Amino acid sequence: MERIVVLGAAESGAGAAVLAKKKGFDVFVSDMGKIKDKYKALLNSYDIQWEEGQHTEPFILNATEVIKSPGIPENAPMVMKLKQQGTPIISEIEFAGRYTNAKMICITGSNGKTTTTSLIYHILKEAGYNVGLAGNIGSSLALQVAEDNYDYYVIELSSFQLDNMYEFKADIAILMNITPDHLDRYDFKMQNYVDSKMRITQNQTEQDAFVFWNDDPIVAAELKKYNLKARLYPFSEYKELGSIGYIEDKEFVVEEPMPFNMEQEELALRGKHNLYNSLAAAITADIAGVSNEQIRKGLSDFAGVEHRLEKAGRVRGVDFINDSKATNVNACWYALESMTQPTVLILGGKDKGNDYSEIFDLVREKCIGLVFLGVDNTKLHAAFDSFGLPIVDVRSMKDCVDECYKMAKPGSCVLLSPCCASFDLFKNMEDRGEQFKECVKNL
Predict the structure, then answer these.
(1) Do residues 313 and 441 lie in contact, with contact meaning Cβ atoms separated by under 8 Å?
(2) Which of 5, 125, 272, 345 ranks highest by number of CB atoms within 10 Å?
(3) Where are the domains of the chain?
């Protein structure tokens, strides 16, 4: 019997283990950390062997194939040992794709992928499609393949997931943009990260579609290196050469495959970044055969994504905005660009090789104060101390919100858009956003 070892027992790992067990493999799950109770219960319900707090080498190195959690870096000691002996290492998405004939709609990009993924899923679901939501959001693709029977999957893919995908193919691939992110995982070499994102197009045929932002200079340069077979669907803010989705005379227009248009003011999501998200979603739904009426409805009644420019409350005339998902500089740029009030900006966390110069002009133009929330704010001080703005360092969310409230004035806003990962002070990005909302509620 072939042996599947799963490294990491969170959402993707536990789901992959269940699918492997149902397909008749000998399965073992190993996690260096503590496994959550809900995943232990899931593994136990399928009589799957697991361990936590360690990697027992004899139980792992005898694997036929290893499914690795995207959170485990390629240079982790156990991963290196597996590579040295030639054991194939794949992602949960790669594994799950072998066992379904469902249409795969896959979204990646440095920014906008969660909103775009959620919006596409919303449109298809409301249009009556038999569709699952997977990848970085939703339930594990592997678990859904094991337990459900969907005709479509809408999948948000990180660069880490794409790194261990080889034979998997997206029927519709969407690339929102490529800006510096996660460079600490890519030897601080931008091209390595770019190569990872471009894997979204691998294995596509003439029957498939590639939707992308036409104005992204990195994507434009990369496309010259590739001989893509898929049909191309570029979009941009304004009508330009090649674009089939754009805004013209305050009208939202998609030319192909079926002409579609609606008034821009009817879109539920505001801001330039959300215009791109809406264009990508509309084109994708159009390709998938959703009617104009249903696309129009989905674009106009979508409620948005938690932790992405989410209204956290108003206290004595000060608005608080939770953009905890902004874990890179470009995401913060789009958030600041959409601000219409004087802004107190919260920055900080685990730096991933950030270049803050991208937001310098917007900080000068829009910000009335900065609060640095992190264990080590040295790089932030080097970047922003010369701006002459009030700056405060904090190490807890309560202190952060209190200091922001002191800086803010009625009619201004407080924006949590940190540019950084959350792991220095918080469990994850969601924990950071939840604590922010709770502290605002307690003001």
Answers:
(1) yes
(2) 345
(3) 3-90, 94-301, 310-441
Q: Which residues are 254's β-sheet partners?
A: 245, 260
DSSP-assigned letter for residue 36: P
Contact (CB, 8 A) for 124 and 288: yes
What predicted TM-score, i.e. pTM, was given to this entire model?
Answer: 0.80
104: left (phi over 0), alpha (psi -120 to 50) or beta: beta
Element (H, E) at 164: none
* pLDDT tens digits along 150-170: 999 999 999 899 999 999 999
Query: How far apart (Å, rounded) are the C-alpha atoms in residues 135 and 130?
Result: 17
Contacts of 252 (CB under 8 A, 6+ apart): 261, 262, 263, 264, 266, 267, 278, 279, 282, 299
CATH no., domain 94-301: 3.40.1190.10
CB 237 within 8 Å of CB 230:
no
Sheet holding 49-52, edge to edge: 49-52, 26-31, 3-7, 65-68, 89-90
> Is the Cβ–Cβ distance between 52 and 44 less than 8 Å?
no
Distance CA 174, CA 253 (A): 18
Smallest CA-to-CA distance from 69 within 148, 25, 146, 14 is with 14
Over the stretch 166-212, which tens digit does the pLDDT of each residue have?
A: 999 999 999 999 987 777 777 788 899 999 999 999 999 999 999 99
Answer yes or no: are the C-beta atoms of 331 and 357 closer than 8 Å: no
Q: How many CA atoms lie within 13 A of 253 on its CB side?
A: 14
Q: 115 near 163, Cβ under 8 Å? A: no
Pick the CATH number of 3-90 from 3.40.630.10, 3.40.50.720, 3.40.190.10, 3.30.750.44: 3.40.50.720
Concatenated DSSP letters for 394-405? ESSHHHHHHHHH
Q: What is the Cα–Cα distance from 51 to 369, expressed in whole angstroms?
A: 48
Please report the DSSP string for 309-358 in residue order.
SEEEEEETTEEEEE-TT--SHHHHHHHHHT--S-EEEEE-SB--S--GGG
Tell me the backbone φ, ψ of residue 26, rounded to 5 degrees.
-80, 120
Q: DSSP labels for 167-226?
A: S---SEEEE----S--GGGTTT-HHHHHHHHHGGGTT--TTSEEEEETT-HHHHHHHTT-
Q: What is the pLDDT of residues 384-423, one digit of tens each?
A: 999 999 999 999 999 999 999 999 999 999 999 999 999 8
